[in-house]
Design a protein that fits this description.
SIS_dom_sf; globular; single chain; Rossmann fold; monosaccharide binding; carbohydrate derivative binding; 17 helices; glycolysis; glucose-6-phosphate isomerase activity; about 425 residues
């Protein structure tokens, strides 16, 4: 994996950063790296996530899911960090097992999915670190009932990943369900390389060892200089640009298979760094499609964006047939991959020319190893950014506020946050 910072330099784009600025920042990267290493050694909350490449036991995950012989589908019931990591992996990789996610409580969508599945050959993968998240538990109760209605023994088809205690752990014990534990010290949005993200991938038959190997390769490159670590290079430059007003970060992979990766990145970046009035708002875009919609804004709108362009350098390709239409002759003999690459390079050049900094991230292939590299690197980048910005990367009090309010509204306890909902101002125009 490599990160190319050329288009954030002030020599490539006005409003970029100078090499001197990066070198000065590098001294702070060394301090931040030192703090991160101490956190990892002590397995402190959050920092522990960066130890996962060697702490996660892929055999234990494979063993735990081995009782599900030849499933047609796996439905992961979870939300946020308990769904997006697994979804990123299974959406990016091909498998004969269809992977679905119930990570919302939209009744129509839930019903539509359940109606479409052969529940007798579907594995239900319920994931919740806390074991208390309302959306996840409600969806699971609905799935349970759908299975019972279809004459399927839900306990036979259910797999649980949760903490050592909580409602879900009690349920797993009561029904003797196969289960895995969420490792200590790993917040949901940093859990893709643990049991949380890898169980669904294992059920789909993906090579989870290779995912961890890719992650380990990035882990091995963490060092006290941003010039030696692609992960730190990305984290440090994102921070430096945010300090200069680039308060939005458009994650724009040029691969359909990485579309869900942008969603995962959005949670990682938003929940980790959006604190104390600071942060960089993640935007989700897809190349080349969004060149024809959002790019206008990125190039000519407010100067508040970093654009992150991601691509794989090797992929399957499709030749573009020759045509006798004169105006299209230039396309014939070339390929869709070449066209996609030309679009990618044109976009980064056009952004730079308009004074809009952008970073190029490349992996060799969208395969298990490449995904492991990319996901670990983004996590380490995020942790480094959090250190440089001096925010508490691993908490999410603003999200917890909403969770308590919703629970209070549903009669799940006495939460003062629910009162604020009742006191809502109204200015209704009909
Ligand atoms: O895994 P769970 O405990 O069910 O939590 C699922 C999600 O809940 C909250 O919304 C948190 O802010 C997320 O970080 C977390 O990933």
């Amino acid at each position: 994996m490599q990160v190319d910072l050329g288009n954030v330099l002030d020599t490539a784009t006005v409003h970029g950063v100078s090499r001197e600025t990066l070198e000065r920042l590098d001294a702070r990267v060394a301090d931040a790296h030192d703090r991160i290493e101490r956190g990892r050694e002590a397995s402190e909350h959050g920092y522990e996530a960066l130890n996962l490449p060697s702490r996660t036991d892929p055999d234990a995950i494979r063993d735990a899911v081995s009782r599900f012989d030849d499933p047609s589908a796996v439905v992961t019931v979870g939300i946020g960090g308990s769904a997006l990591g697994a979804a990123t992996l299974t959406d990016a990789l091909e498998s004969d097992v269809d992977a679905y996610y119930l990570d919302n409580v939209d009744p129509e969508a839930v019903e539509e999915l359940l109606d479409s599945l052969d529940l007798a050959s579907t594995v239900v993968n319920v994931v919740s670190r806390s074991g208390t998240t309302a959306e996840t538990l409600a969806n699971f109760l609905v799935v349970q009932e759908a299975m019972a209605d279809a004459g399927v023994d839900w306990a036979d088809r259910t797999f649980v990943t949760t903490g050592e205690e909580g409602n879900l752990r009690d349920l797993a014990e009561k029904h003797d369900l196969p289960s895995l534990s969420v490792p200590d010290g790993v917040p949901g949005r940093f859990s893709v390389l643990s049991t949380v993200g890898l169980a669904a991938a294992a059920i789909c038959g993906h090579d989870i060892d290779a995912i961890l190997e890719g992650a380990a390769a990035q882990e091995a490159q963490l060092s006290d200089s941003l010039f030696d670590s692609p992960a730190y290079a990305y984290g440090a430059v994102s921070y430096a640009l945010a300090e200069r007003g680039m308060l939005q970060n458009a994650m724009m992979p040029y691969a359909e298979s990485l579309e869900t990766f942008s969603e995962w990145f959005a949670q990682l970046w938003a929940e980790s760094l959006g604190k104390d009035g600071l942060g960089q708002t993640p935007l989700r875009a897809l190349g080349a499609t969004d060149q024809h919609s959002q790019l206008q804004l990125y190039r000519a709108g407010p100067r508040d964006k970093l654009v992150t362009l991601v691509r794989a350098t090797e992929r399957e390709d499709v030749a573009i047939p020759e045509t006798d239409l004169d105006g299209l002759a230039y396309l014939g003999g070339s390929s869709l991959g070449e066209l996609l690459d030309a679009e990618f390079e044109a976009t980064e050049a056009s952004l730079a020319a308009a004074g809009r900094p952008n970073v190029r991230i490349e992996i060799d292939r969208v395969d298990e190893y490449g995904l492991g590299e990319l996901l670990y690197a983004m996590e380490a980048a995020c942790v480094l950014y959090g250190e440089l910005a001096n925010v508490d990367t691993f908490v999410q009090p603003a999200v917890e506020w909403g969770k308590r309010a919703a629970r209070g509204l549903l009669g799940g306890g006495d939460f003062e946050e629910a009162d604020a909902v009742a006191e809502k101002e109204r200015l209704v125009i009909e």
